[in-house]
Amino acid sequence: MIESPSILLDGNPVPYRPGETLLEVATRAGQDIPTLCHDPRLEPMGSCRTCLVEIEGWPRLAPSCATLAEPDMQVTTANPRIQRHRRLLFSLYLADHPTEHEACEDGAPCELHHLAHRHNADPNWPHMEPLRADRPGDRNPYVEFRADRCILCARCTRYCDEVEGVNAITLTGRGSETTISTSDQISLMDSSCELCGGCIAVCPTGAMAEKMPLVAGAPPERELQKVRTTCNYCGVGCQLDLNVDPSADEGRGRIVKVTSPPPGTITGDGNLCVKGRFAYDFVHHPDRLTTPLVRQPDGSLAEATWEEAIARAAAGLMGVRERHGSDALGFVSSSRCTGEENYLIQKLARAVFGTNNVHSCAAT
Amino acid sequence: MAGLVTTFGAGAMTNSIQEIREADFLFVTGSNTTEAHPIIAMEMKRAVRRGARLVVADPRAIWLTTIADRHLALQPGTDVWLLNAMAHVIVTENLVDHDFVANHTEGFETVRDAVQEYTPEKAEAITGVRAEDIRKTAREYATTRKAGIYYTLGITEHTHGTDNVYCLANLVLMTGHLGHASTGMNPLRGQNNVQGANDAGATPVFYPGYQRVDDPEVHARYEASWGVPLDPKPGLNLNQIIKEVGKTIHGLFVMGEDIVISEPNVSKLEEGLNQIEFLVIQEIFLNETARFADVILPGACFAEKEGVFTNSERRVQRVRKAVDPPGQARADWEILTAIARAAGADWKTSTPEAIYDEYVADAPKLRGISHARIEKEGGLQWPCPDPGHPGTVYLHEGGILRGKGLFTPVEYRPSHESSTETHPLVLSTGRTLYHYNAATQTRRAPGPAAKQPEAFVEIHPADARSREITDGDRVAVTSKRGRIECRAMVSRQVRRGCIWMPFHFAEARANLLTVDVGDTVTGTAEYKVCAAEVTLVQALENPVAFPGSFASVQQDR
Question: Do B342 and A314 touch (CB under 8 A)?
Fold first, then answer.
């Protein structure tokens, strides 16, 4: 058996698989190295410099996200030199970012503020006026770009290119005027954007923000309850988090937004599409049926109590069975309902009404 | 799924979604993956980025063709010719995995003989795909170790849908692309819980866990468990039920489906619904079918109840309650229990977890999965026969489930309807990224509603020109069965002589046009081929770019 190669990580030998980056090896070994531009679904860019580590024999600190592990590399992830570097770096980032932590987090949590705090960044550096252009007035209903929060980590544009593959947004401009935009600054609605919202999900600072909760003045994400569930659209079964304001709607609770779980989550790897992330308005739509309805002799529909409606439904089905036999009944089930409910409807058809005439729309 | 059960012994994706990223060859056919299964498409994009070869066989130039190595743009309904010709190449060029064929399959000779006639040259004449492209695709598929087939309703929604599935299965079996990671035969399920509805026995042929109702042992077991006599003969499938509505079906219970939008040839169904004695629907919105209902019961949506969905890769995952249902609406499982009790059955008021336990107790394939295990370990893939079993990532690892994989020879049969003088175009229907089924949910969301506000028909520029139709014009689409109006989207995404429409829009129901003739085995209706014609109704006054499809930003090729 060939022994797998290893590196010396903070003095401890750690094996790695060829092709792994130092960040991957260190993360697997339980080290918590700060990153801003990194996302495991993206090609390493090495631009934010927060993940720098010291490698024995290398003159300069190296970005762990973009450096491949090599046999017997001696890597240090934390020492005074690295800490000094990180503190300086986060102080610089903060100087070009909204300074108030809470105000900055009016939507999603801000990874930059969290990391800056953890690495003792100095919040009192002179503040810079950002020169990055906003894109006000884009009529798309979902994505709001707030340039003052942007740190140009390019997670969003790389996600749009590498994962979603539509290249709707890009880095534009030069130097301190570099910003995120579409080609020709057109609306996302007119671009190749498919409204997957991946740019919002990967943004570490809330620069790419979800528009509707902001417009509605919903509570910030940190005050919402996250409920992990399975998407109700196609058959992929992506996992998603419903972000609920439990006190809204007289205590019934209201879905404020949908966020994606972290990369690596099965199923979906933290990715969502336009339907999964944004098409949940139907849940709280005023058109929802809220009370049982029963057809009247004059042909109109009238509201009924549950007792009346259930009795009428059961009696109607039993009447057909009496007049024409069990096989004059048909039960159409739904692949939209749960496994338990599909179990019950086929048991209802078979054990209660005596027919195998039960099928969901899953005929194929 | 019937085709897959026959050939392999299980009707589901053989492999897992996560394996797609490691595949080296992807054959995608009859699946507009980026629109119908966007997140699976992301895995495909990832594989292609890594260097995997992608071949798309589809009449339309779907998004995936923009990153594909090759697009086989076949004439709708000629899949058997294309796939048999690929098998022909694999057989004649001796690319067959003889060890696998000898050890794990039966009936190879029948297919070997049947595909003799299906030369790539003849196939070219019928499918419109170049013989050389068929040859290259067959060779690459046969000689790549990690080669997977991905398909969906473009394969099955034909009168010869099961034949198409057999043809694909023959390719898998003769190349031995089964029982390994990143290979296999992978039907991508269209709806969140299609797989789970089948798992749970919402089918006329099977009790939960794919146990036949006409198997005496199974029948006896369920009679004992439920304590009532049960009917030992299979029931009617959905297509048959729909056709018998108002004839032999006099009472109908519809839970969570808008049959008046989603079923083919709906005007005939509406006549039947006018005749029917009793109709109950259980819904979250007042849909089109509600017009005919005697009782309407307000159900709960996925965010308002507990339970499980099974995804395309056989993974049972949890659905969790986040908010209360509106008004007096109730979870569907509560409503079903109440009806059973009102009809005299002795059903206990229960919880989804207890219902689940009862459901899997008699279903060996799923018995090892429980709510508690999913809570702890995340979603689990069946088969999972006992609580210690880790679940099954890909099927057929230690040999094929039915013992030996069954080769099934298939001869080409034309689609039910072919183009005529009055209806010279071939209409296919399908889904788009922005909407979902009858669109009762997605049209209530501002983004999808704005990106794709109304119904449209894709028509090739040459066909549009000869009918004096320009992009955005109001047009009528007709078939022998009906007429609808929508907007024209002049696009090279469709072949000349073909048109394509989404079926999501209630005011332009594509299913007024489609054929209700079903596949001979499954009864699945032929949504993908019917003869149609497009005529101009009103020209667009101020022509503008029509957003909503990547076709609008695609260069004229």
Answer: yes
